[in-house]
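hiii so my PI (J.) wants the whole complex modelled not just the main chain, which honestly fair. so below is everything: two entries, each one labled with what it is. i double checked the lines twice but i was tired so who knows lol
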Amino acid sequence: MGFKALGLETWPAASAEEAGRILRSLTREHDDYAIIYIEENFAAQLSHEIDRFKDSPTPAIILIPGREGPLGLGQNALRSAVERAVGTNILGD
Amino acid sequence: MATTAITPTRMVLNRLKGRLKTARRGHKLLKDKRDELMRQFMDVVRRNKELRTKVEQGLTAAFASQQAASSVMSPEMMEQALLYPRQSVELDLTFKNIMSVNVPRYKFQTKNNDPSEIYPYGFAQTSGELDGALEKLAQVFQDMLELAEVEKTMQLLAEEIEKTRRRVNALEYVMIPELEGNIKYISMKLEENENATKVRLLKVKEMVLQDAHHYKQ
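here's the output for the full assembly
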């Protein structure tokens, strides 16, 4: 809601399915979005959609905490990237 | 080792030696690449961790103030206040090459540079809490942008490291030992042939001498 005032484009979604639909239309029909921020509570159910874009330079899909506060999914993404690169978790958490 | 049929000739030996040399050089180069990528990656990971914590804290705070604002104002009023943004953001996307990995670099431009331009409403009908919420959001947005850049960089680097590591391992544990084994096999085979020829020559010489001079050793 507030992001709109900052000049970002926002698409409100009530459910994860709706968020997935929006995400697909954003990535498929228009390819002029470089960054897409998505709330963690939706992202949990859309992980396969999001993972598809992990290896392509655009768009960057970034998880942000929703109203309920951080769920730790964003931190998870970091950990999985480290595991992928190093083969083991060396961050120690 | 030499399971596949290789013809033990000098030509094949030479070719295998050349391949081994290339494989060794490639292995060394890829190993260096992997190490450098890893170094860069660790920097990025550290930065990412920092930013993520910062963004998560910032957003939580911003949402909390927004919550406070919405408890003071009616939802319709708030929606109306935020409905039409005065600010717009344009994102410039360029790519930076880190060890042959193209990572995005974002540069964003706001249409209005005045920081007070983030408030798309008049102050008469809105509460001060909303101003605070928006200000917090604007602050955290800078970090969010950098987070996007860093996180994408991290993902792309992770992919490249994985690929490079696999290549290094394939060279180190499969290609190079196999080539070495084949080379050893051929050189042993060649040596064997040489010995056989030598013995045959000795034998023939003996026979020829015996034939000519009835000479016996």
